[in-house]
């Protein structure tokens, strides 16, 4: 069975997700550490990263967050 595509909530909406992290780097553009293209976003660790790239990585690792 193939899991449905991973969907990360990067909206930063703390009402919907109390653990929401601000993934918007305030207009700074840095190179995504996965695809090496410029992005305005960062992942949970603060490293520059596209949302789609982070989702692809999460999917590759099984999509489970524990
Ligand atoms: Zn990327």
How many E-type strands? 2
Helix-strand sequence: EEH
Residue runs with pLDDT of under 50 for 5 or more positions: none
Shape: flat
Helix content: 10-25%
The overall pLDDT average reads: 85
Structural class: alpha+beta
Distance between the termini: 21 Å
Q: Report on the biggest sheet.
A: 2 strands, antiparallel
Gyration radius, to the nearest Å?
12 Å
The ligands found in this model are:
zinc ion
Percentage of β-strand residues: 5-15%
Total number of helices: 1
Widest beta sheet: strand line-up: 1-2
Short description:
The protein is an alpha+beta fold and about 70 residues long. The chain contains one helix and two strands; from the N terminus they run E-E-H.
Features:
2 strands, two-stranded antiparallel sheet, 66 residues, binds zinc ion, alpha+beta, single chain
Describe the model.
The structure is a single chain. This protein has one helix spanning 51-60; strands at residues 30-31, 38-39. By secondary structure, the chain is α+β, with helices and mostly antiparallel strands. 15% of the residues lie in helices and 6% in strands. The chain has a domain at 29-62. The longest helix is centred in the C-terminal third of the chain and has 10 residues, at 51-60. The relative contact order is 0.22. Bound molecules: zinc ion. Zinc ion (ZN) binds next to loops.
